[in-house]
Amino acid sequence: MTAEIKTPSKLERILVSGKIAVTSEVGPPRGSDPEHIIKKAEKIKNYVDAINITDNQTAVTRLCSLASCIHLKQMGLEPVLQMTVRDRNRIAMQSDILGAASFDIYNILCLSGDHQKFGDCPEAQNVFDLDSMQLIQLVRKMRDEGKFLNGDSIKRPPKMFVGAAANPFADPFEIRAKRLAKKVAAGAEFIQTQCIYNLDRFEEWMRQLRERELHKKVYILAGVTPLKSAGMAKYMKNRVPGMDVPDEVVKRMSGIPKDKQPREGIKICIETIQRLKECEGVAGFHIMAIEWEEIVPEIVERSGLYPRPKL
Amino acid sequence: MIVAKQKPIEEIITQIKNYEKILIVGCNECVTVCEAGGKKEVGILASALRMYFMNKGKKVDIDEETLERQCDREYVEKLREQIDKYDVILSLACGVGVQFIAEAYPNKLVFPGVDTCFMGGSEERGAWSERCQACGKCILGQTAGICPIARCAKRLLNGPCGGSTRGKCELSKDIDCAWQLIINRLKELGRLDDYERLIPIKDWSTERAGGPRKVIREDVRQ
Description:
By secondary structure, chain A is α/β, with parallel strands linked by helices. Chain A has helices spanning 10-16, 35-44, 65-74, 90-102, 132-145, 176-186, 199-211, 230-239, 247-254, 261-277, 296-302, and strands spanning 21-26, 50-53, 79-84, 107-111, 161-166, 190-195, 219-224, 282-287.
């Protein structure tokens, strides 16, 4: 791994220093009250190194990711700007990247975005001017070469640590490592994965990455989401595309009285983190506690990831 | 071919119900092949409309005509002698044909009788699917002969997205994941390593984004 620090990102510094990084995420509200974001961030700020802000996740219109990141920045926190290529063409993306850079936002996660069919505007046009790999290339070009896509120079180029998502469980499984290699070749510096419930399959994916030494070229943050109920486990298993929830997990959740299921979900989450801490190449954890942010501190603490490093 | 499907009859009636002399014009090309607007469909629609207006006690004259092509002025001209007999033209051609008729007969109302859907081919009798979006710069040589622009819901040039499940698109189990198809074919060709080549950012100016397009061939122009 290149030990050279390329941006002022705290997330980058922690990863480069070899410490386990912890990130989490906050989904903006369907309204303009910033208190929603601020309160969620307050709950987790001392337990994570950086906070992702989702970009109209599941294609449902929400307060924008960039403005939400600015609120976090104003709280002295470290945001990760999630940007999908679904809603913006290359003009808007370059412009938003500059806007984010003007507020010294130092992390970006480049995503395709869920299809609008699943959101609140299924009749919408989609953009997909670039794909997520090409967005990675775009941010790297703006940062490393200080150039716009057309080659013009940027005054004060963005300094962003560039991330991408990976789903170790999506089909076709045989290209999972190749796909990650492609994202690394495009310029991804950190990866946040889809939520992991099938640990065997995740470890097999990591083995494939190590075979190609990809774990030395990119920081892998393993994604975890605590299950709140057996219903949620079933929903994720059956309804969420690209999600792999093994039967044992559903059974384990279902075998517990309803009021104790959240505790069991937390337990599974902590066990996952503890097992994956031992997995070579896992550089950190991305804890996505969907509408359950208040539980993040407990998960971080009980997984032995607290206190967070002061850098 | 250009694939179209007939509009719901209620919508067609809404468009033409205030007129008494109607000419339904079919096209002998794509819409004949996809059974939306050829001579046969013109006949069936004409009968259905005659019956509808008869039941309503309204006297409406409906005539039928099918041109060789509606996207060619030479054939559209063939309507000239009879056109004055009609209040409106109902074209069962694709959007191109409707517009060529409108351009040739500026004082005549023209309505579309079909919805133009896409460029595609026949899967089997009664099933057509999309294959091309006419982006103006073909990349099939880089994608194993399968177009992700036309066949991936996110037109990803470096797919698949995380929603690809058991070979199907996250939008529907009835849609193949284009990138699964590309990967399968690369594998069959023994070229799976080609998957790792990054397809560069596309110039969309040759597509719809660049404005209405024209092809000019000086060598064949008269």
